[in-house]
Task: structure prediction
Amino acid sequence: MSRAMSETLLSRAAGETRSAIIEIPAAQGCLEIDDLSLRYGEQPALRGLSLRVPRHSVTAFIGPSGCGKSTLLRVLNRLHDLNDEVTQSGRVLLEGEDIHGPGVAVAQLRRRVGMVFQTPNPFPMSIYENVAFGLRLQAPLKKRRRDEIIEWALVSAALWDEVKDRLHDSAWTLSGGQQQRLVIARTLAVQPEVLLLDEPASALDPISSLKIEELIRNLKSRLSVILVTHNMQQAARVSDYTAFLEGGELVEYAATDDLFTNPRLTRTEDYITGRMS
Amino acid sequence: MRRAGRPRGEGPWPWLAAGSLALSLLMLAALLLLLAGRGLGHFWPAPVVLVTLDDGHQLAGQPVREERRRTLEGHWVRERLYRVGNRDLDGEAWRWVEVGRIVAEETPEAWAVIERRRWGELIVRPLALEEAGRRLTEAPLWSAFEARLERGRALAEERDALREEVIAPLARRLAAGHDDAAARERLVAAQARVAELQAAMARDVLVVESAAGERLSVPLAEITAAWRPNAMSPAEKLLAWGSNLWHFLSEGPEAANSAGGVWPAIFGTVLMVLLMSLLVTPFGVLAAVYLHEVAPQGRLTGWVRIAVRNLAGVPSIVYGVFGLGVFVYGLGGRLDAWFFAETLPSPTFGTGGLLWASLTLALLTLPVVIVATEEGLARIPDQQREAALALGATRAEMLRRVVLPMALPAMLTGVILAIARAAGEVAPLMLVGVAKLAPQVPVDGDFPYLHLERKFMHLGYHVFDVGFHGGDVEAALPLVYATALLLVGVILVLNLTAILLRHHLRARHAAPGTR
Ligand SMILES: Nc1ncnc2c1ncn2[C@@H]1O[C@H](COP(=O)(O)OP(=O)(O)OP(=O)(O)O)[C@@H](O)[C@H]1O
Ligand SMILES: [Mg+2]
Result:
């Protein structure tokens, strides 16, 4: 699929359109994905994906398990670089610049595009050191400045109150939900431009989950957020745009309100209303 | 699932497994007990028994053990082995005595065990003390003797200090070509003082009598230790046992390793193992990191892995041969030609020594460290690596800050295994630097303090040497046991140190699921 086709509804199968994708104006886009395909060995995981992610907004990726959401996020962070099994084609532009371009330092890119993984993975260090990890990789900071950033990150991730008295305990003594918020804080501390969240609330209780949602809404003013979630309500509550993926293809991409109230395709409707297609 | 009772279908396997474990532990315990009993008992001051035989002959000795033997006529008799000492008088320091022929046994307090620099022990009755041929009448005899012995020791100490600190450096200076009148004078003065001390020490003589009635004059300077076991209280015996043990641990060997202590061997073993660990750890860890984290995983890395694992199975003597050919003759010869040409043809590094032995053993244990470290690296979840990368770490930063700290306990496991293997190796050492006798330990006050080119002693080789190269098997046996026990102890201490270190690190870098 090429970008030229993405503005229109494409008709392939009998009577049913294949995909419905809105075009975000180039000036508003921070990330642009262009005809991205990816295979693990022989098995395709992404097939010709094209979309533009708007700046300073929350974009939700939804879709059934195994449809390629995590794979897509890993492309944006270039985490597939190390996997020899992966073959990839297409382009990804961050602020107009190809992230696979020859002049791009991977470490620098990953600093700009922060990633929070599906399963919490704090380092076996203290809570403080976990959040300081990304900072310590950069130019050395005054301890006071570092402490400020760490506090800010922990406050932003709605974790500060729970850990402020035990910052030097091992991060592994935290609960699963706390660990998830800790890794969010750890990523925020690096101050990325784009934040990739892979099901950040899946291990959280409803209250923390709401806190995270609030955090995401607040973050919007500073950065662009891509959120993968299986929770339709959550996607509806926090995101501005929603992309529905299935079988490695982008099926429908629209403003969240439109997609949930008035899906263009029956495949989308079936998924969000919970019907099996 | 059924939990109560014996699980159905498992049959006798759990019992067999538990049984064989118990058997192994039992055998280990028996081994240690044997070593401890035979080895440590040697230092206990055994009583001196004066035995009268049915033909009127007398002998004095310390009973060692009994055996049933068949006589030439074909009937069985019990015989008892006595340590009788007096090798210069009777020719044989051990006597088997038929128990049935003993008519009387006494333990008279006056009998003494006297250790000498040459000819081994005397088991005799002290008669008198003489100074320059004149009989002394100080009483009681034994305490007078002990006082003089003590004085003699002080004199010997002064003499040794003079020799080591004054005479040797001056002689070296003069030999180096400095013609220094003052130094020459001081040398002469010191030598005169030594002669004086020697004369003073040679004056005192103890006259003793053996059980057979032979008399002997023993210069006190010849005596290293003396005690009267029958006159000692249990507390004194315990003290003597401790002091004997301490001498064994802290002193150098004497009389061609058949007496004295094993300190240089302990020191050599520990130093060699530590050096080996220092050498093997960085190489092994780097190799494992390259193999697991850096090299593209493929057929080649697979082959390398198999090769490394098989290397661990190569007999150690083969490593010894390799060390001799490559390190000693190859590298050592080169070093000598380049840096020590003035002392050739006598080699400096071109002969076995501490460095080459450590290197050879490092090579021997390299596979162990590589395999253990790689296993540790494989246990680290990829999520940890990805988390670091996603925060903007380069691969090197990820390795240094996340992967290596988490793999540290595994590396230490590798080092522990390496130590366990290396400390027990003797065969390759014989080719690359162990010495039968090297009373000079490889660390001293002379620059550069650590003398890597020196030969060193090793407990394992010492066991071999004492046990099989000495003339007196009965005397060597307890030393063999004691040295073997010590070797086990040294390995245990080294391993425990590493295990404690690992425990400490584990607490700091615990991996998920291991805490
Ligand atoms: N490392 C890998 N090697 C091979 N195949 C993989 C790998 N990772 C993912 N896949 C496959 O790629 C497809 C997409 O996986 P992905 O993890 O992106 O799904 P997902 O949409 O994130 O699912 P979920 O919602 O369950 O997290 C799946 O079929 C999966 O089996
Ligand atoms: Mg996923």
About this structure: The radius of gyration of chain B is 30 Å. Confidence is low (pLDDT under 50) at residues 511-515 of chain B.
